[in-house]
Protein backbone atom coordinates (compact mmCIF):
# COMPACT_ATOMS: atom_id res chain seq x y z
CA UNK A 1 0.00 0.00 0.00
CA UNK A 2 1.22 3.47 -0.87
CA UNK A 3 1.96 5.02 2.57
CA UNK A 4 0.62 8.38 1.35
CA UNK A 5 -2.82 6.80 1.11
CA UNK A 6 -2.90 5.19 4.56
CA UNK A 7 -5.17 7.84 6.20
CA UNK A 8 -7.64 7.35 3.35
CA UNK A 9 -7.50 3.55 3.51
CA UNK A 10 -8.00 3.56 7.29
CA UNK A 11 -11.08 5.74 7.14
CA UNK A 12 -12.64 3.84 4.22
CA UNK A 13 -12.72 0.60 6.22
CA UNK A 14 -15.35 2.03 8.56
CA UNK A 15 -17.62 3.54 5.89
CA UNK A 16 -21.25 2.50 6.31
CA UNK A 17 -23.11 1.16 3.28
CA UNK A 18 -26.75 2.12 2.78
CA UNK A 19 -29.41 0.88 0.39
CA UNK A 20 -30.50 3.53 -2.13
CA UNK A 21 -33.43 1.82 -3.85
CA UNK A 22 -31.40 -1.35 -4.40
CA UNK A 23 -28.07 0.39 -5.04
CA UNK A 24 -25.43 -0.25 -2.37
CA UNK A 25 -24.09 3.18 -1.63
CA UNK A 26 -21.18 3.82 0.72
CA UNK A 27 -21.13 6.89 2.92
CA UNK A 28 -17.80 8.57 3.54
CA UNK A 29 -16.29 12.05 3.77
CA UNK A 30 -14.71 11.51 0.35
CA UNK A 31 -17.98 10.63 -1.37
CA UNK A 32 -20.58 12.42 0.70
CA UNK A 33 -19.01 15.02 2.96
CA UNK A 34 -20.40 13.05 5.91
CA UNK A 35 -20.05 11.74 8.57
CA UNK A 36 -16.94 13.94 8.55
CA UNK A 37 -14.25 15.11 6.16
CA UNK A 38 -10.86 14.63 7.76
CA UNK A 39 -8.14 17.10 6.70
CA UNK A 40 -5.62 14.25 6.73
CA UNK A 41 -7.73 12.36 4.22
CA UNK A 42 -8.05 15.37 1.91
CA UNK A 43 -4.29 15.90 2.09
CA UNK A 44 -3.74 12.22 1.26
CA UNK A 45 -6.07 12.52 -1.74
CA UNK A 46 -4.24 15.56 -3.11
CA UNK A 47 -0.82 14.01 -2.46
CA UNK A 48 -1.92 10.73 -4.02
CA UNK A 49 -3.06 12.48 -7.21
CA UNK A 50 0.15 14.50 -7.35
CA UNK A 51 2.22 11.33 -7.12
CA UNK A 52 0.39 9.88 -10.09
CA UNK A 53 -0.15 12.84 -12.44
CA UNK A 54 2.09 15.66 -13.65
CA UNK A 55 0.11 18.87 -13.18
CA UNK A 56 2.84 21.09 -14.62
CA UNK A 57 1.10 21.78 -17.92
CA UNK A 58 -2.50 21.61 -16.68
CA UNK A 59 -4.59 24.78 -17.09
CA UNK A 60 -7.68 23.86 -15.15
CA UNK A 61 -9.20 21.18 -12.93
CA UNK A 62 -12.85 20.41 -13.69
CA UNK A 63 -15.00 19.06 -10.85
CA UNK A 64 -18.62 17.95 -11.08
CA UNK A 65 -20.84 19.27 -8.28
CA UNK A 66 -21.02 18.29 -5.51
CA UNK A 67 -18.55 15.65 -4.46
CA UNK A 68 -15.76 16.54 -6.85
CA UNK A 69 -15.48 19.97 -5.26
CA UNK A 70 -13.58 19.27 -2.06
CA UNK A 71 -11.06 17.10 -3.94
CA UNK A 72 -10.53 19.76 -6.59
CA UNK A 73 -10.11 22.35 -3.83
CA UNK A 74 -7.46 20.28 -2.05
CA UNK A 75 -5.70 19.56 -5.34
CA UNK A 76 -5.88 23.17 -6.47
CA UNK A 77 -4.29 24.49 -3.29
CA UNK A 78 -1.61 21.77 -3.50
CA UNK A 79 -0.75 22.35 -7.19
CA UNK A 80 -1.65 25.99 -7.83
CA UNK A 81 -3.91 24.90 -10.71
CA UNK A 82 -7.31 26.68 -10.68
CA UNK A 83 -10.57 24.76 -10.89
CA UNK A 84 -14.10 25.14 -12.19
CA UNK A 85 -17.19 23.39 -10.93
CA UNK A 86 -19.63 21.69 -13.29
CA UNK A 87 -22.77 23.01 -11.62
CA UNK A 88 -26.22 21.51 -11.22
CA UNK A 89 -27.66 24.93 -12.10
CA UNK A 90 -27.82 26.80 -15.39
CA UNK A 91 -26.43 30.30 -15.60
CA UNK A 92 -27.64 30.93 -19.14
CA UNK A 93 -24.24 32.06 -20.39
CA UNK A 94 -24.01 31.88 -24.19
CA UNK A 95 -21.28 29.22 -24.20
CA UNK A 96 -22.74 27.10 -21.40
CA UNK A 97 -22.92 23.38 -22.22
CA UNK A 98 -25.82 21.36 -20.76
CA UNK A 99 -25.02 17.83 -19.64
CA UNK A 100 -27.47 15.08 -18.78
CA UNK A 101 -26.09 12.98 -15.94
CA UNK A 102 -27.33 9.51 -14.94
CA UNK A 103 -25.93 7.50 -12.06
CA UNK A 104 -26.94 4.09 -10.72
CA UNK A 105 -29.53 5.75 -8.47
CA UNK A 106 -30.69 8.96 -10.14
CA UNK A 107 -30.32 11.56 -12.81
CA UNK A 108 -29.91 15.29 -13.06
CA UNK A 109 -28.70 18.10 -15.28
CA UNK A 110 -25.20 19.58 -15.09
CA UNK A 111 -23.86 22.71 -16.76
CA UNK A 112 -20.30 23.36 -17.92
CA UNK A 113 -18.99 26.92 -17.90
CA UNK A 114 -15.54 28.46 -17.74
CA UNK A 115 -13.53 26.00 -19.85
CA UNK A 116 -12.04 27.46 -23.03
CA UNK A 117 -11.02 25.80 -26.30
CA UNK A 118 -7.49 24.44 -25.97
CA UNK A 119 -7.53 24.37 -22.16
CA UNK A 120 -5.58 21.43 -20.80
CA UNK A 121 -7.96 19.83 -18.34
CA UNK A 122 -7.84 17.25 -15.55
CA UNK A 123 -11.30 15.99 -14.60
CA UNK A 124 -11.57 15.32 -10.84
CA UNK A 125 -14.33 13.35 -9.11
CA UNK A 126 -14.91 11.27 -6.01
CA UNK A 127 -16.23 8.00 -7.46
CA UNK A 128 -16.32 6.18 -10.77
CA UNK A 129 -19.32 3.83 -10.71
CA UNK A 130 -21.34 3.43 -13.92
CA UNK A 131 -19.04 5.95 -15.61
CA UNK A 132 -22.00 7.88 -16.98
CA UNK A 133 -21.11 11.10 -15.17
CA UNK A 134 -17.54 11.10 -16.41
CA UNK A 135 -18.59 10.13 -19.91
CA UNK A 136 -21.13 12.97 -20.06
CA UNK A 137 -18.69 15.57 -18.71
CA UNK A 138 -16.01 14.39 -21.16
CA UNK A 139 -18.48 14.84 -24.04
CA UNK A 140 -19.10 18.42 -22.87
CA UNK A 141 -15.34 19.06 -22.68
CA UNK A 142 -15.03 17.78 -26.24
CA UNK A 143 -17.85 20.15 -27.26
CA UNK A 144 -15.82 23.13 -26.09
CA UNK A 145 -12.61 21.72 -27.66
CA UNK A 146 -10.78 21.38 -24.37
CA UNK A 147 -7.85 18.98 -24.21
CA UNK A 148 -8.42 16.22 -21.65
CA UNK A 149 -5.09 15.43 -20.00
CA UNK A 150 -6.36 12.96 -17.41
CA UNK A 151 -9.33 11.81 -15.37
CA UNK A 152 -8.73 11.26 -11.66
CA UNK A 153 -11.08 9.76 -9.11
CA UNK A 154 -10.53 8.84 -5.50
CA UNK A 155 -12.45 5.56 -5.71
CA UNK A 156 -13.20 3.30 -8.66
CA UNK A 157 -15.94 0.73 -8.09
CA UNK A 158 -14.91 -2.59 -9.56
CA UNK A 159 -18.27 -4.19 -8.80
CA UNK A 160 -20.24 -2.12 -11.34
CA UNK A 161 -20.85 -2.72 -14.99
CA UNK A 162 -19.27 -0.05 -17.19
CA UNK A 163 -20.12 -1.55 -20.55
CA UNK A 164 -18.93 0.73 -23.34
CA UNK A 165 -16.87 2.90 -21.01
CA UNK A 166 -13.33 2.89 -22.37
CA UNK A 167 -11.70 5.92 -20.86
CA UNK A 168 -8.50 5.63 -18.93
CA UNK A 169 -9.04 6.75 -15.34
CA UNK A 170 -6.46 7.20 -12.59
CA UNK A 171 -7.94 6.02 -9.28
CA UNK A 172 -6.38 6.06 -5.83
CA UNK A 173 -8.23 2.90 -4.82
CA UNK A 174 -10.30 0.22 -6.47
CA UNK A 175 -13.20 -0.67 -4.18
CA UNK A 176 -16.21 -2.96 -4.02
CA UNK A 177 -19.06 -3.65 -1.65
CA UNK A 178 -19.09 -7.20 -0.27
CA UNK A 179 -21.70 -8.36 2.26
CA UNK A 180 -22.66 -4.77 3.02
CA UNK A 181 -19.08 -3.64 3.66
CA UNK A 182 -16.76 -1.48 1.62
CA UNK A 183 -13.60 -3.34 0.61
CA UNK A 184 -10.39 -1.99 -0.88
CA UNK A 185 -9.13 -4.23 -3.67
CA UNK A 186 -5.35 -4.41 -3.31
O1 LIG B 1 -20.07 6.77 -12.28
P1 LIG B 1 -21.44 7.25 -11.97
O2 LIG B 1 -22.45 6.16 -11.87
O3 LIG B 1 -21.88 8.33 -12.90
O4 LIG B 1 -21.41 7.85 -10.50
C1 LIG B 1 -20.47 8.78 -10.07
C2 LIG B 1 -21.10 10.09 -9.73
O5 LIG B 1 -22.11 9.90 -8.73
C3 LIG B 1 -21.93 10.85 -7.70
O6 LIG B 1 -22.58 12.05 -8.01
P2 LIG B 1 -24.10 12.38 -7.63
O7 LIG B 1 -24.84 12.59 -8.90
O8 LIG B 1 -24.65 11.38 -6.68
O9 LIG B 1 -24.02 13.81 -6.97
P3 LIG B 1 -23.27 14.39 -5.69
O10 LIG B 1 -21.84 14.54 -6.11
O11 LIG B 1 -23.96 15.67 -5.52
O12 LIG B 1 -23.44 13.41 -4.54
C4 LIG B 1 -20.44 11.06 -7.69
O13 LIG B 1 -20.10 12.28 -7.07
C5 LIG B 1 -20.05 11.02 -9.14
O14 LIG B 1 -20.10 12.29 -9.76
N1 LIG C 1 -21.10 7.26 -2.42
C1 LIG C 1 -21.23 6.32 -3.35
N2 LIG C 1 -21.27 5.03 -2.97
C2 LIG C 1 -21.39 4.10 -3.91
N3 LIG C 1 -21.51 4.31 -5.19
C3 LIG C 1 -21.48 5.57 -5.59
N4 LIG C 1 -21.58 6.07 -6.80
C4 LIG C 1 -21.53 7.38 -6.69
N5 LIG C 1 -21.41 7.76 -5.41
C5 LIG C 1 -21.36 6.62 -4.71
Automatic annotation (TrEMBL):
Keywords: Glycosyltransferase, Purine salvage, Transferase. Its EC number is 2.4.2.7. GO terms for biological process: purine ribonucleoside salvage. Residues 43-158 form the Phosphoribosyltransferase domain. GO terms for molecular function: adenine phosphoribosyltransferase activity. InterPro entries: HGPRTase-like, PRTase-like, PRTase_dom, Pur/Pyrimidine_PRTase. The keyword DNA repair does not apply. It holds the Pfam family Pribosyltran. NCBIfam families: HPT_Archaea, PRK02304.1-4. This is Adenine phosphoribosyltransferase.
Amino acid sequence: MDPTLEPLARSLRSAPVVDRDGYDYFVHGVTDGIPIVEPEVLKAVAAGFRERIDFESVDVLVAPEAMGIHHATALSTATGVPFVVVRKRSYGFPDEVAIHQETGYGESELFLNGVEAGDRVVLVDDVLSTGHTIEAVCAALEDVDAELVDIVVVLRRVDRDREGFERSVTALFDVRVVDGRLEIVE
